Amino acid sequence: MQQQDAGAPRASLRLARPGLSASGWVGAAIILVYVVVALTGAAWAPYGATAILTGSPFEGASLQHPFGTDNLGRDVFSRVVLGTRSVLTMTFAATLLAVAVGGLIGIVFGYLRNWVDEIGMRIIDILISIPTLVLALLIISAVGNSLWLVVLTVAFLFAPRVARVARAATLTVVTNDYVAAALARGESTLSICLREILPNITGVMLVEFAIRCAFAIIFIGSLGFLGFGAPPPTPEWGLMINEARANATNSLWPVLAPATAMAVLVIGINLFADGLSRLIDRPGQRSAEAK
Amino acid sequence: MYGKDILRLSRRKVLACTGAALAAGPLSVALHVPKSWAQAKTLRIAAGEADGATGTMDPAQSTADPDAARINLVFERLTVLDDAFAAAPQLAKSWESNATGDEWTFKLQEGVKFHDGEAFTAKHVVHTYKRLLDPKTASPGASSMAAIDPDAIAALDDHTVRFKLKTATVEFPALIANRFTYILREGQPESELRTAGIGTGPFKVKQFVPGEDVSTFVKNENYWRPGLPKVDAVELRAIPEESARIAAIESGQIDLVWDLGRAGVAGLQKNPDIKVVTTRSPFVLTLSCWADTPPFDDVRVRQAMKYVVDREQMLQLVLRGYGNIGDDNPVAPWIEYALQAETRARDIEKAKALLAEAGHPDGIDIELFTSETTPGFIEMATLYQAMASEAGIRVTLNKAPANDYWSAVWLKQPFVCSSWSGRGADDALAAPYLSTSDWNETHWKRPEFDAFINEARASTDVAKRTELYQNAQRLLREDGGAIISIFPDALSATRANISGWKLHPQQSTKDFSEVEIG
Amino acid sequence: MALISLLAVSAIIFWCVELLPGDAAERILGRNATPESLALLRETLNLHLSAPERYLTWLSNLLSGDFGTSLVADRPVLDYIASRIANTALLSGFALILYIPISIALGVITAINRGRMADHAISVVVLIFMCLPEFVIGILLISIFAIKLAWLPPLALIGQANGFGDLLRLIALPTITIVAAMSAYAVRMMRESLIEVLDSSYVLMARLKGLPTWRVLLFHALPNALGPAINITALNVAWMIGGVVVVEAVFEFPGIGRLMVDSISHKDVPVILAISMVMTGAYIATNLIADVLVILLNPKLR
Question: Any stretches that span the bilayer, and where are they (chain B) (predicted)?
Fold first, then answer.
């Protein structure tokens, strides 16, 4: 049961190719474009994210409004562009937090392999067995839906899953001589975990980070779609899709534009993660359940 | 008092039931032929407000819209409201009061039977009202009818009921045309009321289980209004997601929907298979602030907040033109006793000046709570934010979860989006703004205002009463804490083969008896 | 172990629900609540008891096989959730029936055509489906197949179904949505593990022996590549148990996910607990079954 979440690591018969694959580079390029848009979008987006009546409501695509306008006449293109920043920030913050906390817990448990590990992993198993979305809805209903609470919730839900992967990876390196040597030098547990083990599983953790990012984008989007994400008028893509849905039969642009933006970013991250995992000889490391 | 009644009669149009009875006379014979279920005409209707486990058909406990629709299928009241919110007869044929307006006598329809065959008589009316007012019932409607003395409701004979009131209420017949006063059958066990009530209405309950997605109703073959109802069965469900509701009617999965949002209607109007049915309604959307809490405790701030609103733009953008402009007065201009005033025009300079006078030359920062709970809230709040920013009123939006907005945010936060279902002038003014009201959402308490309302209620002279109600509206408009810019129309749609559907401006009232398929 | 997990989950969920603001009485009465009616209703619903007391009462009732009564719907929880579970099981069942052959077939096609057009084309489509959130897939399917083409009904109002064929039409779109979301992962997984097996020495041996390709595939490669696919299926089913919430919301499907969302909004504790138990139980059972299957299929572990 434990192994599945790590995607059943197997020894590959193929040799790891040197350098990132072509599709990996495509993924990296896509991510780069999004990061640039997020950083510079505010400077060149034609309208503000909350500027109403930039045209009449529900206009189709035109030169003025490349993706049309929404129910309040806001420019969909500008909102998608400006939404990039909040989406990327939320995603990276949530994932970084999850990988940092989950990763540390996983490494420590994997290194200790004593009763702490035993009990800790049981708790993690239990947390994982509760469906993510259900737990997220419960937590967000309880504590409210500000931007940062959504980030914390997503981090909390992802951390146990990351911990499992980190622990599994730690188990493969913990028996190495350099760990024993460090122990002999009298280094503390934390220092061994951070200085000896972490550098040797960096690749796995990077791939994990990339995959979790992709999940986080879809997950945050789903929360926004169910009305549990960031509050309006935040130009969050899931929320935009939800708001535009009632009129989808009449004008599909306000749905399609944020959906495409989301999908392309997720594709980019997936391609990059794939390339990365091939690079470090861990093909096909995947877990579907966080989706 | 009699003069008042004559006034009502002269203004009332030909009663819907008589008209319908004439038109449907020959048809009714055909409908009595037994049919197999496959041939039966089933009307499939969909409410927009979420239904679910809270559902109940006990009129005394009903608060949700799907509940109201179910209750309308099965039960009837003494009086109903007409389009201008004046009382019209249903199970009561006529009524009169004494000279002081604190004793009312109702003559009941004869020959009406409950679904189980029991004749409808005065004792059922007495039972219904006594139960409704009993503290053990804990009906949310009891407080609005506190004027009725429960021990003095009397059946004078089988078809005459007399109410004695603790305080004179000239509008009593309109006051009891609310969602709680549907007549129950005396003797039916309390435990059956939630799911299997027996009424006098056009349909009987076939199946209603709270939490299941469909409730079904069958035709009452012995309905007292001849020729009605015109369909054999009704299937009711709630489809809260608007896009889903629209998809369902466009594809013909549903015959009739209401509670449509503005965005969707535009698409539906282009569809030849769909008829869009709208009605002007005094249903009102408000932005309500606490008049006793800074910065709203200064009347100049409240006025500045009213001056920033471009009401025409609100109407066009929030409602896409389906509605009427409001003027910070909860009584819509076409309602009896409404104050007719010139609409407050947008005036940013004036708003800035008022703010500066009130000691806020740099503007104010306020937080506005909104939610998806009522269609239009999000758009209204988003637009208000944009409009107000030009005058230095910086609004932060806080979108609260829809499911507990009314219990956790409304009445608990100082600046919120709120809505009130369409009401007559008295109820529209008294329920939210009387200083003694449980639902005083603006914390605005003015003894003068209370005095106007109370005097108007006891005043039997129409001109005097009108003046008092209008004074109250004038005061509220200038000084009150509610920014009222739009009255949304009620919007519904049917498939093109459905006829006879009229949308009532009182949201809890829905009459399906005349709806016909094909 | 499974029982301890369930117990712990029930405690966690109960605690989460306790954190929710307000209580069922407020949710039921909503806008029209008065202090008197609230107090009366709390008394009837036993909400005046302390949280630990209510949890222990619930637990002891559960041990005697009683899931309690819904606070809001006023009917036994078991009776209430049974029909919803059946609906969701029906939807998931259809999805699984379609999902397994589709992902195996596509996985095989991409693996044996590795690097050719067919592989690239399918891989791209699969990648796109994997990266589109299921609510977007759902909305697009409704726009295209229900509104534009009018081939299928947009909503899965299965109460309207008139016979089996009708039922199939009603649940077609949500089923396709789930299958699309789930297959994407499985196809990729299947492809990768098949490629690996096809490259292995014993498949080479079989080929050298002159066995036809389809025999090599069917009897040598496929069984060995199924293990990882089964694991992915287990994960997919686990995802489906929770993720079906979104699909049910898009299609108005009267299943367990929507009931869960409704119950959270009504703070209907017994129903929330019961559904969590069912979902968690299903998750644990799925994993057990997958573990057993993997062991049965793998000659080395058998």
Answer: none
Same domain, C54 and C151: no
Distance, in Å, from the CA atom of B497 to the CA atom of B273, rounded to the nearest integer, reads 8
Whether residue C191 lies inside any domain: the answer is yes
Q: Provide the shortest C-alpha distance from residue A135 to chain C (in Å).
A: 8
Would the CB atoms of A286 and C246 count as touching at under 8 Å?
Answer: no
Q: How far apart, in whole angstroms, are the C-alpha atoms of residue B496 and residue B517?
A: 9
> What residues in A contact B385, CB-CB < 8 Å?
50, 233
- Domains of chain B (ranges; CATH) run 12-73+187-280+490-518 (3.40.190.10), 79-175 (3.90.76.10), 284-488 (3.10.105.10)
Confirm if C173 and C152 have CB atoms less than 8 A apart: yes
* Same structural domain, C115 and C191: yes
Q: List CB contacts (< 8 A) between B379 and chain A.
A: 71-72
| Number of domains within chain C | 2
| Model ipTM value | 0.79
**What is the least distance, in Å, from the CA of A42 to any CA of chain B?**
18
Q: What is the pLDDT along chain C (302 residues), one digit of tens a residue?
A: 677 888 888 888 888 887 776 677 776 766 666 777 777 777 777 777 777 888 888 888 888 878 888 877 778 888 888 888 888 888 888 888 888 888 888 888 888 888 788 888 888 888 888 888 888 888 888 888 887 788 888 887 777 667 777 788 888 899 999 888 888 778 877 887 788 777 777 777 777 777 777 777 777 777 777 777 777 788 778 777 777 888 888 888 888 888 888 888 777 888 888 888 888 888 888 888 888 887 777 665 55
Closest CA to C99 of C164, C161, C189: C189
Residues of A in contact with C134 (CB under 8 A): 222
Tell me: cis bond preceding A231? Omega within 30 of 0 counts: no
Report d(CA A67, CA B246) in Å as an integer: 23
Look up residue A253 and give its amino acid. W
The answer to whether the Cβ–Cβ distance between B253 and C41 falls below 8 Å is no
Chain B residues in contact with A57 (beta carbon < 8 A): 317, 320
Q: Is residue C68 part of a domain?
A: no
Regarding beta strands B490-495 and B274-279, do their DSSP bridges make them parallel or antiparallel, or are they unpaired?
Answer: antiparallel
Per DSSP, the three-state class of A132 is helix
| Closest approach of B267 to chain A, Cα-based (Å) | 5
C-contacting residues of A 167-226, CB under 8 Å?
Answer: 214, 218, 221-222, 225-226
Q: By residue range, what is the domain housing residue C58?
A: 2-63
Q: Does B383 sit within 8 Å of A58, measured CB to CB? A: no
In a domain, C281, yes or no: no
AA identity, residue A196? E
Asked if residue C70 belongs to a domain, the reply is: no
CATH 1.10.3720.10 fits A22-281, yes or no: yes
Q: What is the pLDDT of residues B286-314, one digit of tens each?
A: 999 999 988 999 999 999 999 999 999 99
Both C114 and C256 in one domain: the answer is yes
Q: Which amino acid is at C226?
A: L
Phi, psi of B419 (to 5 degrees): -145, 150
pTM over 0.80: no
